[in-house]
Amino acid sequence: MMDRELLRLYFICGSEDAKGEPLETIREALEGGVTIFQLREKGTHPLEGEALIRFASDIKAICKEHDVPFIVNDDWKLAEAVDADGIHLGQDDMAVSDLPEYFDDKIIGLSVRDAAELEVSSLEKVDYVGTGPVFTTPSKADAGAAIGIEGLVEMRRLIGDTPMVAIGGINETNYKACLDSGADGISLISAIAWAEDVKGAASGFLDG
User: Which InterPro entries does the annotation name (predicted)?
Assistant: First the structure.
């Protein structure tokens, strides 16, 4: 089982998510105490091809400097190309069981929203579960309706000891409720990426 402390402050960012320059935003967030990072390259004009590989490689170097695991969302070929520390898959992505051997000793995360999704998900090779959206989120148009704190408590009951990170609409006013309701950590995009003081915003989420 992965060290659940790694999930404590999980930052997700792509080239279009940051208010400032993306690589600098990521560096400042890691300096602020982010414990694990995920590259999620979505948006209206996502990077592709060599540009995406360069961007991912630069982020990996920053993560390595700070001894923070580097996770790639969905794109297993990119993860393998840049020697990422792991991958995060959604319910509509490829099945965990279909991942190449490369990922046998890597971190594998899976989005599992509720009991219905858990029923059709195998957690056999999964290192952690991402659950949400806990609250309404501006960062992910396809996230679906919020499950609330009640949904988080229910998922903790259902998955037992499996490490779990809460995601969706989490900010400085509600993150502690997630940690108090069974989540090992919180996952954030806009609350860090759009902050005026990125480093300060990240460190603020480590209180409590």
Answer: Aldolase_TIM, ThiamineP_synth_sf, ThiamineP_synth_TenI, TMP_synthase
Q: Which 8-state DSSP code applies to residue 164? A: E
Structural domains of the chain, ranges and CATH numbers in brackets: 4-204 (3.20.20.70)
Q: Would you name the residues annotated as active-site residues? A: 40, 111, 140
Cis peptide before 133 (omega within 30 of 0): yes
* DSSP summary character for residue 97: G
Judge whether 189 and 139 are in contact, CB under 8 Å.
yes
In sign, the C-alpha dihedral spanning 85, 49, 73, 190 is positive
The annotation status of 139 as a binding-site residue, yes or no, is yes
154 Cβ contact partners less than 8 Å away, ≥ 6 residues apart: 114, 115
pLDDT score recorded for residue 22: 98
Answer yes or no: is 189 a known binding residue: yes
Amino acid at 39: L
Q: At what angle do helices 49-65 and 22-31 cross, to 10 degrees?
A: 20
Count Cβ atoms below 10 Å from residue 126 Cβ, excluding itself: 19
- Measure Cα distances from 72 to 40, 80, 85, 163, 175 in Å: 7, 9, 8, 18, 24
Higher pLDDT, 142 or 10: 10
According to the annotation, is 169 in a ligand binding site? yes
